[in-house]
Amino acid sequence: MNNQRRDILKAGGGLGLFGLLVAAGLITPGEARAEWNKAAFDAKNIDETLKAMGATGPATSAEVQLTAPDIAENGAVVPVGVVSTLAGVEAIAILVEKNPNPLAASFVLPAGTEPSVQTRVKMGQTSDVYALVKAGGKFYMAKKEIKVTLGGCGG
Predict the structure, then answer these.
(1) Over pLDDT 90: what percentage of the chain?
(2) Which of 101, 119, 123, 118 has its CA nearest to residue 40?
């Protein structure tokens, strides 16, 4: 069996479906592109990152829950989840304070999407991790310290 042929057919089918959805107007070119806030991802500390994201003085909220292990055995793959019960969540971001670039992940949520994300982040050392949620034009956050036993960012 030729697996390369099968892979090419699958990829071609996916591109064909994508083209059909764009032609039908169900997906616009703006939706097909990922948003990229270069200034936020290039920032070197938490304050610069928050400023680049437009978050001035985010409030700590019990309606934002950050789930992560207390101790990460391997800083290269630390599971982190963020869930919010706030109404009208527009975006969720995960920041790692002591990483060279604190913004580890940023998600833009379309209206009607459940405000819950799960991912794995890389941490170079023990650090505070922040969940930043934008809802109704305001920013809210939760914080948790995660101890890293084996470094992931150049450690």
Answers:
(1) 57
(2) 101
